[in-house]
Amino acid sequence: MADDLATRVRADASTTAEAVTKGAALLDDVIRNLISRQGRYPDIASAHDWYLALAYTVRDRMLARWVASARTYSIQGMKVACYLSAEFLIGPQLGNNLLNLGIEDDARKAMFALGLDLDELLAVEEEPGLGNGGLGRLAACYLDSLASLQIPAIGYGIRYEFGIFDQEIRDGWQVERTDKWLEKGNAWEIIRPEVSYYVGFGGHTEHAADASGHLRVRWIPARQVKGVACDMPMQGFRVDTCNLLRLWKSEAVESFDFEDFNAGEYYEAVHEKVHSETLSKVLYPNDEPEIGKRLRLAQQYFFVSCSLQDMLRLMDITGTPIEDFAEHFAVQLNDTHPSIAVAELMRLLIDVRELSWDAAWSITQRTFAYTNHTLLPEALETWSLPLFNSQSPRLLEIIYEINRRFLEDVRRAFPGDEERVARMSLIDETGGRKVRMAHLATVGSHAVNGVAGLHSELLRQTVMRDFAEMFPERFLNVTNGVTPRRFVMLSNPGLAQLLDKTIGDEWRSDLSRLGALAAHADDPAFHEAWRAIRRDNKAALALRIQKTVGIDVDPDMLFDVQVKRIHEYKRQHLNALYIIALYRRLCRNPDLVTAPRCFIFGGKAAPGYAMAKLIIRLITGVAEVVNHDPATRGRIKVVFYPNFNVKHGHWIYPAADLSEQMSTAGKEASGTGNMKFMMNGALTIGTLDGANVEIREEAGPENFFLFGLTAQQVEDSKREGYRPQQYVEANDELRDALEQIAQGRFSRGDTNMFRPLLDNLLHHDPFLVLADFADYAACQERVSEAWRDVRQWTRMSIINTARSGKFSSDRAIQEYCERIWDARAVRIDLAHA
Ligand SMILES: *Cc1c(COP(=O)(O)O)cnc(C)c1O
């Protein structure tokens, strides 16, 4: 078989002897894995069998690097950056791993020799949907950058058996299907039963003096769950560094023998086992109302406790004194989900390792740093005291003590200001008493960062104002970034090659090099190459759209794209209102000259978020009417692309001409989709919100379509008593669009369907959709105008890519390393390991 490959690839004159050998070795290994790991043989192997065989082969190559990395870290005692996150939305792994190892061509040739198409195998992979959206995807981008920058790092999270649901659209409505990503096995993970920890729940505490007279607290949990490590390798780009993503899976502690039980006890024991295993069963969607709260808190504590125990074990293995913990681990809390870590580390250091409170507190504060991701009040986590106490009584005692000492400091700094004390307390005493997780994270950390300049500023001025006054030095900004490996090289290979040819390939690990593109922004030959690539990407997306939803889309239309979670603050309904207005305009005036557009939406709504689901129904309803109206054929199309996830993002981001970033100013912390679009040459239409502000600064205002109220104006208008009706009265097109919806035009005559949405907009409109409508519509007119000047549009597109360097996650991770973690790179050399 290998000889066969050698002859076939040798026939290709461009193939070097080395490539032939590498390709042949890869092919041998694929076949060996197919047989010995899967018990299959080539004649009957399915595409999925081959995918697995190739994945195992690639994993083996990563494991060699992983072992070399782990050994180097432990010998050199390097500081390890630990990224704690309840979500890691890592996307499909095979393509990215081939790319980072630099063996994509070898694999393609080896598969070709087998009569297989690599792209078809890549398409077979189920992506681990272990995240909701932006926050989980950010964590995944950061792991890529950490490994690529050769920083010793571990990602810690939860191995959900069911990730984010799969979305189907039926009769225009979202339908959720359970995600079964593990059904056919996961080639990337290594389950390590020997790396496991016990995590306690419930029970009570006992306070007593020990032999030397120190007060010791013993927590006697009511039950315990075992966390087992499931590891996935995270390969750096063009380096030998391979880091670890360690996800915890819950198991029952006791195995039990049938004869030890009478029947009743037996089923009780089985029940207990089932109960323990439900802990890591399912990822909770964002934006859900109350359901499943208890389990979610249990999940958070479970993965945090396992992760901290794991760090302590790593210290023990290397014989490092526990007092040096903060010199060996920098622990980043990705939002408040893991913030219970502050109390858990204190417990482990005081109760288990018997350190003094002051020593433990100093370690804790120097270890942790906290990233805030939202200013939305409903998204700031709190847990009711009874719930917290019933789950973790000892941790609640520790939180009380942290709070007691902290509030003493507050009183010293601001004497007589009891209102401030109440505002800053870790315990919310208004209404039902609750633990405020953001306050716990802030008090227990040495650094607190927002995720874009504007967001960090608002954080200091609003939700964290008291804390920023007390600890100004603790607050900083680290603007988010995304990895150019996955979001340019892997998803847009045509663009990547053109960039290499034009400016060299250093941009792949130093995205600021894209700046050199600006010199080609007026070169007609380059324009042509640029447009050809963009057209190919659009044609590829059009084909997928045809296959998945059966809508014909002309790749020469302007692709106007909004893909992200469906949420009122992201305002997909503002987009829909504009489409209706435009459609009505085109119907009224058949000769109207405008840019032919295809509006493409994608995104999931939380299963319990009725308004978001109704917004999806509005979009599909508009699509149904618009796409079937002969009066507007060729001028306007609307597509709702189902089940938006990382894999589908690979097709969508590179095919967009226009990136919709229309959140109400002040509500989107950063956004990262906006960055993926920009790198791939889309222009942005957006508000001054999140990282849009910086995107516009980098691109230049002349290369960005700005509209809408500013964060300050949004606040002002709310304070002055916002009246949405007033905007309807002042705008005929808006009134007409709303009336069309009310009359059932997009709900097959049903005049009730959209009533909740209309009532909300007309009477509350909490996200100022109607206030921004006129400016948005006017801005879209400028977009259409600009689109008609092909040369100018191409130029702006090139400039956007050229100036996107800042938004690489490499830059973001460098900032975390220097300003927060004090973590340094270490070179891993596979040859000398
Ligand atoms: C990047 C990304 C997001 C975040 O998109 P925003 O536009 O920043 O909200 C959400 N989901 C997926 C699958 C992504 O890749």
Give your account of this protein's structure.
With 833 residues, this protein is α/β, with parallel strands linked by helices. The protein folds into 2 domains: 77-91 and 127-480 and 816-821, Rossmann fold (3-Layer(aba) Sandwich); 501-805, Glycogen Phosphorylase B (Rossmann fold), CATH 3.40.50. 49% of the residues lie in helices and 15% in strands. Strands 5-8-9-2-1-10-11-15-16 form a 9-stranded mixed sheet, sandwiched between helices. It has a 6-stranded parallel sheet with strand order 19-18-17-20-21-22, sandwiched between helices. β17, α22 and β18 form a beta-alpha-beta unit. α2 (17-36) packs across α5, α4 crosses α19 (484-490) and α11 runs antiparallel to α12 (357-367). The longest helix has 30 residues, at 47-76. The mean pLDDT is 94. The structure holds pyridoxal-5'-phosphate. Pyridoxal-5'-phosphate (PLP) is lined by residues 133-134, 137, 564, 645-646, 649, 671-673, 676.
Instruction: Give the proportion of residues in helices.
Output: 40-55%
The number of distinct helices, counting runs of at least 4 residues, comes to 33
**Structural classification:** alpha/beta
Number of domains: 2
Rg over CA atoms, rounded to whole Å, is 28 Å
Return the CATH architecture of the largest domain: 3-Layer(aba) Sandwich
Largest sheet: 9 strands, mixed
The CATH C-level class name of the largest domain? Alpha Beta
What is the arithmetic mean of pLDDT? Answer: 94
Molecules bound to protein: pyridoxal-5'-phosphate
Strand content is 5-15%
Q: Taking strands numbered 1, 2, ... along the chain, how are they ordered across the largest sheet? A: 5-8-9-2-1-10-11-15-16
User: Separation of termini?
Assistant: 32 Å
Number of strands: 22
CATH superfamily of the largest domain: Glycogen Phosphorylase B
**CATH topology description of the largest domain:** Rossmann fold
What shape does the CA trace take? globular
Low-pLDDT residue spans = none
Protein name: Alpha-1,4 glucan phosphorylase
Enzyme class: transferase
Family: Belongs to the glycogen phosphorylase family.
GO cellular component, one term: cytoplasm
